[in-house]
Each structure stands twice: as C-alpha cells, then as structure tokens.
Amino acid sequence: MESIYLDHAATTPVHRQVTEAMMPVYQDVFGNPSSVHQFGRKARKILDEARHTAAQSIHANEKEIVFTSGGTESDNLAIIGSAMANRQKGKHIITTPIEHHATLHAVDYLKTQGFEVSYLPVYEDGRVKAKDLRQIIRDDTILVTVMMVNNETGIIQPIEELSEVIQEHQAYFHSDIVQAYGLFNIDTKQLPIDLMSVSSHKINGPKGTGLLYIREGTVLDSQQFGGEQERKRRAGTENVPAIVGFEKAIQLVKENRSESNEKYKHLKQVFINELTKESIDFDINGSMDHSVPTIVNLSFPNMNVETLLTNFDLAGVAASSGSACTAGSIEPSHVLSAMFGDGEARTTNSIRFSFGLANTEENVAEAANRISQILKRLS
C-alpha cells in the first residue's frame, strides 16, 4: 500500500535538485565564510550569491537579508529583537491569537519583561480586520506582528490593509510569511513590511535554515552573542551547505510558481470533490475565497482528531491536526478556538490537509477514498 503525504504545511520533501546543489558544498567547500584565506573566501562567495538570490526573490537589498536557523529563530529575532531595541518608545505590541507558537511564545516572553500585548479579534472566516487594528493601535505601540498565511487553515490575512494602518505610525510591522513564501510574488518595495520571516523546509529546501528580512533602518537587538556574522545581527558560523540548498529551493519555487499554484489548486479541489462524491459530512474551516491552494482545514462532525489521525496513519495517509509543533497534543486548536470560540466542536474534530511536491492527482484521490472509508466505518 502506497503511503500518501498530505502534510506539506508541516514540512516538505527536499527537492532532488536541492540535494544535488548541496552535495558538492558538503564535499568541497569546508572553509569558514569569516576566514580571510582562500578557503574562507570560497565559502563567502557562495554565501553572498545565496543572499543575492534570496534578496531578489522579495525585491529587497542584500544587506536586508539575515540567514537564520529557520522560521522560529526568525520570528524570535524579529519580535524580541525589535521590542527590546525600541522599548524606550513604548511597550505595547499587537498580534493575533492565531499566530504560530514561535510568535505567541515570543510575545508571552515579552510580557514577563514588562510589555503589554493586545490581540486582534479573529472572525469565523479566519481573518482579522484593519478596522480593529485602527481601534487597538496606540501612540506607544512599537510592533505589530501578523502572519501572512495561517499555517493551520491556510487563510490569507489582509496584510496590505493592515500595513496601510501602520504606515504613518512608529510601530514596526512584522509578518511570518513561512506559509506564503513561494506562493506569492512578495515585493518589499511595494509592501511596507519591516520584518519578514521565512523557512527553507516549507519550500522543499533543507531543515535548519531560513531568513529574516530586515528593512534598512529597522532597529533591533541581536538575540545571540558571539561573532559578528550576518552584520552583527545573528552570531554563529553560517550553515553554508544548507543555505545553498535554500537558494536552490528559492530558485525552483520562483521558476515554477504559476504552474505549481495551478497544480495545488486542482489537487485541493480533487480532494474536496472526492469527499463530496462519497457523501462525507464535513465543513471547511475559514474562507475558501481567501485561502492558499496548498492547505484546507476540514471539520468532521461527531469525530475526534486523535482517532481520525491514528486511523488515517494506519491507512497510509499522513495529515495533521494543525501545527506540527503541537503534534501529539490533545489540546483544542488555538487557531480554531479563536475563530469559533472555546469549546466549539470544530476545535477538536478538524484535520489539516496540505498539498505539495509529493502529490499527484491520483494519490490525492486515493487518499480521499481511504479517508472516506474510515469516516464511514467510524460514523
């Protein structure tokens, strides 16, 4: 029985061309990019080329790209780093209750340091509203952090509208774009966001690397202490082979963006159509009109997340109840609780299915068929 992977929002398989790009670096380029001799200069050249590629992908300047260990570190550096560096201007931060835990736990830490945090309300369509930001923002607000695409529901937030509210304000605007990067043409010259977090392993690159875009002029404190790498913003020797893999993954998603989006949109519809054809009772969580083609979050009435995921896995189908960082947790989804209210059945009967490189129309349809049979047996 073929195992079918429908959990690309958790992590993606590394593209073959990414692996091929990394291997020569592992074998031949072992110098430290900070070293001045020829071995170091060779590594530095490769690192600079990757930084150029990353910057071009979001129409940024190379000096605005800081390589990190991934989305979590990027979120922490952006949120804690900017808050600490600007606390003399105020100690008020605005976010949403549906952020990734890398953001939520970062602002929780800031609360222990005397910062005040306000949360934008989230509506049943899975989105926040600019009008609420206008009401909540204050003179002493120094940071607004809202993810571009929610990792559990795939719902796209109104980032442009939110950025307009902040544009003439002192507050920095940070967005975790981990689930959005590669799907959209993000232009930092047009979109006034000061800080953006990206992760390599969500775009078929290697785990353990990512980047933080820091708009020129943005002030933030480093959260690691050591050498002067990454323009003194992120101490530690850069992971050159992984960054080269990340660079190749960036090139691939850029080259194939339009074709891939159409493919994933089709796969998502095939999956929903197959469940409908089998007369499965389900509801889609969030607005389909404001969702990415790679993610759909479905509520199955009178079902239980743990039971469903266990049975799906036994049937060779990999899915998730939400963020991979909380896999195994029996607590209700914090995202769906924010959308529908604490205690609502959807918070404990919903599954996230996410599509990507490992999928074809045939295996998505087969996965839907297996899932349908399980749901019928359990009902």
Residue-averaged pLDDT: 96
Tell the overall outline.
globular
The percentage helix is: 40-55%
Q: Tell me the β content.
A: 5-15%
Low-confidence stretches are none
Sketch the topology as an H/E string, one letter per element.
EHHEHEHEHEHEEEHEEHEHHEH
Per DSSP, the total helix count is: 11
Summarize the biggest pleated sheet. Answer: 7 strands, mixed
- From the coordinates shown, what is the CATH architecture of the largest domain? 3-Layer(aba) Sandwich
CATH class (first level) name of the largest domain: Alpha Beta
Counting helices, strands and paired strands, the structural category is alpha/beta
CATH superfamily of the largest domain, called what? Type I PLP-dependent aspartate aminotransferase-like (Major domain)
Find the CATH topology of the largest domain.
Answer: Aspartate Aminotransferase, domain 2
> In order across it, which strands form the biggest sheet?
2-8-7-6-5-3-4
| Oligomer type | single chain
Number of DSSP E strands: 12
Radius of gyration: 21 Å
